[in-house]
Amino acid sequence: MSSALIAIALLSGDGLARVATHRELPSKPFTASYPVEGERFRNLAIEIYPVGFVIGRYALGIEYMLTTHHALTLAPHISYTLLGRSDLLNGVGAELGYRYFFRTTAGPDGFFVGGAFTFGHYRYYDYADVSCGAPTCPLVFNDDKLQFGGALESGFQALMGPLLLGVGGGVEVRASEKEFTFEPASAQVLNLVIGSGIRPRVFVTMGAAF
Prior knowledge:
This protein has helices at residues 2-24, 50-54, 187-194, and strands at residues 44-48, 57-65, 70-83, 87-101, 110-127, 139-160, 163-176, 197-209. The chain is of the alpha+beta class. The protein starts with a helix and ends with a strand.
């Protein structure tokens, strides 16, 4: 009987000691800067949009994480689209947006939804369609316009160390002070690039997070 009582006392003492030790352990801090223990929080990303290169839209994206879920985005761009031999479109613009990330990780990683305000200033040149080719031919049309709009988007970003890859899509609504009448050979592409109204929005991003 005495041996059993001694064993119970030892077990009880060990259990009480474990509970006391567990209570004395400090809770792990959870902050926006270090949401995952042992991982560096990468709150700044710089990206390019390779799909835009196909249509002459060269953009650089900057994404800044305010906290583990919320990010602000800025994407200035330059447009330079030369189609056929007689059409040239150039201009500058930018997008200012917000993204909400559903996961709590070490940076702009996982599924997100967001929106952006867009604006730009574009100039369209229509050159005489002769053998010399644009932009050395005489001009037959030269005009510019301002454009404003808004977009809703969703997508997914994969953060692999400093490397960041993303894909997404959405819809954009644009309004312009005037409209250009493009040459038939270039109308579809140029209307997609800077045309007014409702337009689809597809993007692929490649970049680095710091």
